[in-house]
Amino acid sequence: MPENAKKNELLYRVYVVLFVFVALAAVIAWKIIDISVVEGEYWKNKREERYMEWRPVPTLRGNIYADDAQSLLATSVEFFEIRMDPVSPRESEFYEQVDGLAKALAQYPGRRSAREWRDLLVSARKACIKGQKGCNRNILIARDVDQSGLEKLLSYPLFKLEKVAKYRGGFKKIKSFKRKKPFESLAARTVGEYRDANMVGLENSYDTVLKGEEKEALMQRFPGGLYVPVYDPTDFEIIKGRDIVTTINVPLQDIVHNELYKSVQEHNAEGAVAVLMEVKTGRIKAMSNLSRSKNGSIGEYHNYAFADRSEPGSTIKAASVLALLEDGFADENTLVDFNYGKKKFWDLWMKDSGSHGLKTGTLQMALEKSSNVGIASVMQEKYAANPEMYYDRMMQFGFDGPTGLDLEGEGAPYIKHPTRDKKIWYGTTIPWMAHGYELSMTPLQVLNFYNAVANDGKLMKPQLVQAIIYNEEVEQEFKPIVKRKSIASRDNINRLQRMLKGVVDNGTARSLRSDRYEFAGKTGTTKVGYSKADEEAKYNASFAGYWPADNPEYSMIVVVYGLKGAKYYGNVVAGPVFKRIMDWTFAIEGEELMRDEQVIASGDVRGYDGEIYGFDPDFDRVFDDLDVGYVGSGRWVRGGNDPEGDVRAGKAKITVDAVPDLSGMGARDAIYVLENLGMDVKLEGVGKVSRQSISPGKNIDNQVITLYLN
Amino acid sequence: MNAVHNIYDHLKGDKAIWLIVGLLGIFSILAVYSAAGSMAFKERDGNTEFYLVQQIVFITLGFGVMYLCYNFHYMQYSRLAPILLFLTIPLLVYTIAFGTEINEARRWISIPWIDKTIQTSDVAKLTLIIFIARSLSIRQEYIKDFKNAFLPILIPVTIVCMLIVPADLSTAALLFGTCLLMMFIGRVSFKYIFLLLLLGVVGMAIVFLVGQVFPEVVRVDTWISRINAFLYTDGGYQIEQSKIAIANGGWIGSGPGNSFQKNYLPYPYADFIYSIICEEYGIVGGLFVLGLYLMLLVRCIGIVTRCPKAFGAILAMGLCLNLVIQAFANIMVSVHLLPVTGLTLPLVSMGGTSILFTCMSLGIILSVSKYVEEAQEKHLDLIQIEDRDADSL
After folding, report:
1. A276 pLDDT above the threshold of 60
2. Model pLDDT, residue A235
3. Which residue of B has its CA nearest to A131?
C-alpha cells in the first residue's frame, strides 16, 4: 500500500471518529435543551414540591450534675422519629425485601399487620414512580424510638442497606431529645423544668449555658409541619451544650427530701422547705421544697426556699439580739422585762407562747425561752427613739438585699424603714419586728444569716452551681464568694453562738439535744392569716441552726407550712426534721471515715478487692487512675478482682428482649441501661442496685421498674 | 499582562490545549466549591472552604504533574511501556485480592505513608494506552497482519480489561472502547476490530454468568439495577434530581454558588457535577464545557492528521480519546442518555488521585504537541524526531 493511501485511510478513519463525537455532542446539546427548555416547566414544578428551610438543629442539652460531677440530676436522652422514603431503594432490592420488612414492622413497632405494612409501602412507591396521588415519600414508621429501637429497626430487611449506603434503604431518622430527671422528684424544683416557655430553676437560670450554641441545618418541609433534615443530622458532630455541676449532694438531698416528706405527711402540712448549706463555702448541699398539688400528692412544685417571702417569726430573734449586742444596748446577762408573758404595746397585746411565770429574766433566757415579750420589751426600750439604728443593723446583718443565689428572680427581704415607710410605721412596729412580724424574707435569707453566725460572722454568697463543664473539661469554676467579711464583731458573734447553743441546751430546743454531738439553733412558730378573725388559725413551724456547735460544718433551715392540727410549734414539728437530718449527716460522715480507712488499708497491698458491674470505659479510667490492672471485654462488663488484686470483667448479659439483672450496678449506669431498653425507672435509696422490682429475664413491655439502691 | 506574556512565551506545545486545560481547571474549582457546600456542612461543620482549598491543592498539584510530564520526553514512555504493562498486571490482581473497599467496590489500593488510596485502574489505563500506541506505531508497516500485528495488541487489551471488569465495569468498558478506537485510527483491519468487539461481548457474557454464580466477586446486581433504572423508569431519583438541576439553570443559569439541587443530588461534586454546572451556568455554560472537551479532541486529531503513524500522535490520540469518552459518558449520565456509571468528569469532578492521573495524560499530550511544533519548525516528520530522540535517550 503506498504511503499516500495509508495516510488517506487514516484520515478518513479519524474523521469518522470525529464525526461520531460531534454527533454525540449534538445529541447531548439537544437533550440539555430538551430538559431545560422544552420540559423545563415540568421539572421546575417538581422542585417546588420540595420546600426547604434552614432550621435549628436539635442540640444535646447539657447535663445537670450533682456535686460529685457524676450523678445526673437532669440529662437529655435522645430519641428518634423514623420515616421511610419508599422510592429511595432500588427496584430489585425493594421488591425482594419489602415482604421481610413488613413482617418485621408488624412485630415492632406494630400498629399494622405485615400485609398492611406491605400494602402501604408498595402502593406509596408505585404512586410516586407513576406520579400519581397517594405518593408518600415520608411514611411514618415509628415515633419515640430510642437507641436500641433504632438498632433493631436498622437490622430489618431493606433498612439494613443503610449500612451499605445512605438512602439505599429509604430510612430517615429525625433526632430529638427528651429531658429526664433520673432522680425524679429529688431536688426537682431546684433543677427546674426545661420547656418552651416558663422555665424554672437551674434549667432556666443556666439555659444559655446548657443549651449551647445553636446551629441550623437545611430541612425539608412536609405536610403537617414536619421538618426532615436533608442530610442525616446524626452524621453531624452532635452539638452539645455545656454541663453544669451543682453543689447538690445526692445522698444528703435524698435524706432531706425523705425526712421532709415524712413530716409533711405526718402533720398534714401544706408544704415544707429545708435548705442545707455548707457553712464555710455557702454551698447548698440540699434543698427540698415540698408542697401539695391539687389532688393532694406531695411533690416539688413550688420553690419556697427561694421565692416565698414570709414573716420569719422567732428565728429572727437571733438578729434582734445581735443588734442589741452590736449597739452595746445589752448583753446576755442584761435583765429584761418578761411581764409574766403578756404585755400591751400601744393598742396591741403581745403574748408568749408557753407559760414561764417570770416577771424578769436575762436576755439569754428571753432567747432560750423564745419570750416574745422579753425580746420586744428590750428592743422597744432601746430602739423606739432611734429606729434607724435597728434598721441599719439589719442591713449590716445581710438583710439589705437578695442573697445572690445563682437562680434567677430572687427578691430582697422586706424590712420597713422608719422614715421612708413612715406611713406604715407604727408604735408596734419595733416590738413586732423584733420577734419576726411586720417584716418578711425567704427561708434562704434567714438561713444565710444563721450561716454567717456559724461562720464566725463571715457572710457567704449561697451557691448552687460550682462548675461549668464543656467537652468533659472544666471550663469555669465558681469558687465560694465572701459577701461580707464580718456581719458583726467577733466578740458579739461568739456571744450569740453561745446563746444559740443555750437554746438547745436549756431552752425551747432542749428536747432535740443529743449526747453524741452539740449543735445550736433557734425555733420559730409563726401564726399566719392572723389578720382575719374568721380564718382558722394556721401556723408555720421553723427551725434554723447549725452543727457541730464548736466548729460548724453545716447550717440548715427547716420550715413546715400551713399547720392546723394540735402540733404546730417549731420545736415539735420542724425541730425533729432538723434533728433527724443532722443525725444522718453524722452517720454518713462516720461511714466515709470507715471507707477512707479501708482505702488506706488496701493502698498497701495495691489492688482492688470487690466486684464491679458497669460501663467498661469508666472502669478503664478509674482503675487506670488507681494503678490497678484491669481487663474488660465488652461494653457492659461484670467481674471482680483476681487473686493478684487485678480486676477482670467479662461481657455482661444485657439484651434488648429481657429485663437484665442489675444488682451491683451503679444507679447512673442502671438508669442508662433501662431507659435505653424503653423502661421507666424509679429509684429508692443511694448507691448501688441491691434489688429490682421486676426480676431479671422478664419480658420488657414499657413497664416502670423500681431500683432499690444500697 | 507581562506575566501572562512570559508564561505564553515560555509554554511550548499547543496553546489551545493549554487554554482548554486551564479553563477546565477553573470550572473545576468553581463547581466543586459550590457543589461541596452541602457536603461541607455534613462533614466539615459547614467549612466549605476546606473543600475549596483541597480542590485548589489537587488542581495545583495536578498542574505540577502535568508540567513535569510535559517536560518529560514522551519517547521515554515508549521504551518503558512493556515493563510498565508487565508490572500493571500483578498490581491489578493484587487489587482484586487485597484492595481497599470503598463504596462496596474494591478498586483502590492504599499507598502507605501518605494515607491516600489510588485506583489501580487509573494506572492500568495509562500504561495500556501507552503500550497500544507503541504497538500500533511500530507495526504500521504490517498492521493488517493477524499474527504479527493484531495478536500482540489483542492479548494485553483482553487481559487488562478483564482484570478491571470485576470491580469497575464502567472503567473497563471505557478502556476497551478507547483501545478499539485507537486500533480503528491505527488502521487495524475492520474484520479484526469486529472480532475484538465480538470478543468483548462474549467476555461480558462470561463475566455476567460468573456474577450470577459468585455475586460477591462481580457486582452484576448493581449493573442490572442501573440498566433497569435507565431503561424502565424515569431514571430514578438521582436522574430526576439532575434534570431538575438542568431545568433550574435555564439558558444562563442561576449564578455561581446558587445551585439548589446540590442539596438533593447524591454526589453533586463528582458524578453529577455537570448538572450543577448546568444549573449555575445554564445551557450556555453546560455547552461551553462540552465544547471544551470536543475542542480537546479536535486538537488531538489535528496532531494525528499531521503526523500519522508516529507513536506520539497515536499516544496523544489514545489518551485524549480516553478523557473525552469519559467526559461524554459522564455528561450523558447526567442528561439521561446513559445508565448511571459512576464515572467522573475528568479534571472537573472533585477527587484527588484521579485528577493527578488525568493531568498526567494531559501532560503527555502537551509533550507530544511540543515535539509536533518542533517538527513543523524544522520541516521534519514527527517520526524523524522520534527516531532521532529514541537513540539519544
Report:
1. yes
2. 46
3. B234
Cα–Cα distance between B141 and B126 in angstroms, integer?
25
Q: Quick check: A307 and A485 in contact, CB under 8 A?
A: no
A581 near A274, Cβ under 8 Å? yes
Q: What are phi and psi of B345, to 5 degrees?
A: -85, 115
Chain A to chain B Cβ contacts (< 8 Å): 138
Q: Which residues of chain B are under the pLDDT cut of 70?
A: 1-4, 36-48, 99-117, 215-219, 221-222, 232-236, 263, 266, 352, 391-393
Q: What is the ipTM of this complex?
A: 0.91
- Which of A6, A12, A17, A237 best tests the B interface by mutation, with the highest count of B CBs <10 A? A17
CB-based contact A646:A628 (threshold 8 Å): yes
Residue A356 in this model has a pLDDT that exceeds 60: yes
Does A92 sit within 8 Å of B224, measured CB to CB? Answer: yes
User: Does A601 score more than 50 pLDDT?
Assistant: no
Q: Which of A1, A20, A24 to mutate to test the interface with B (most CBs of B within 10 A)?
A: A24
More confidently predicted of A336 and B341: A336
Sort out which chain A residues have CB atoms less than 8 A from B304's CB and list them: 10, 14
Separation of alpha carbons A454 and A546, rounded Å: 6
Chain A CA closest to residue B261:
A47
Is A220's pLDDT higher than 80?
Answer: no
In DSSP notation, A571-618 reads TTTHHHHHHHHHHHHHHHHHHHHHHHHHHHHHHHH-S--SEEEEEHHH
Nearest to B104 among A17, A92, A164 (CB): A164
Chain B neighbors of A127, CB-CB under 8 A:
none
Note whether B328 contacts A35, CB cutoff 8 Å.
no
CB contact under 8 A, B38 and A17: no
In the structure grid, which three cell numbers stand for residue A264, read together?
A: 409533711
Of A9, A32, A215, the CB nearest to B246: A32
Q: Which of A513, A589, A500 is nearest to A546 (CA)?
A: A500
**Closest residue, chain B, to A33 (C-alpha):** B283
Strand, helix or coil for residue A705: strand
- For residue A10, the 8-state DSSP code is H
Spatial distance between the Cα atoms of A296 and A656, rounded to a whole number of angstroms:
38
Partner-chain contact B335 A237, CB within 8 Å: no
- Judged by CB atoms closer than 8 Å, whether chains meet at B247 and A44 is answered as yes
* pLDDT of the residue at A599: 46
Kindly report each contact of residues A20-23 with a partner whose C-beta sits within 8 Å and lies 24 or more positions away, as own/partner.
Answer: A21/B294, A21/B297, A21/B324, A21/B328, A22/B294
Q: Do B301 and A36 touch (CB under 8 A)?
A: no
445554564: which residue's cell? Answer: B282
pLDDT at A603 over 60: no
Cβ-Cβ contacts under 8 Å, B249 against chain A:
36
What's the pLDDT tens digit per position in A666-705? 776 777 777 777 777 777 766 678 888 888 888 877 677 8
pLDDT in tens, B232-289: 666 667 788 888 889 988 898 888 877 777 767 767 777 888 998 999 999 999 999 9
Look at strands A647-651 and A630-632 and give their pairing.
Answer: parallel
Chain A residues within an 8 Å CB radius of B324: 21
- Asked whether B237 and B261 are in contact (CB, 8 A), the reply is no
**CA dist A74 to A192, A213, A288, A688, Å?**
9, 19, 16, 19
Q: Is the pLDDT of residue A545 over 90?
A: yes
Q: In whole angstroms, what is the distance from residue A469 CA to residue A586 CA?
A: 31
- What whole-number distance in Å separates Cα of residue A368 and Cα of residue A506? 7
Judge whether A102 and A86 are in contact, CB under 8 Å: no
**How many whole angstroms separate alpha carbon B176 and alpha carbon B193?**
11
Phi and psi angles of residue A349, each rounded to the nearest 5 degrees, phi first: -85, 140
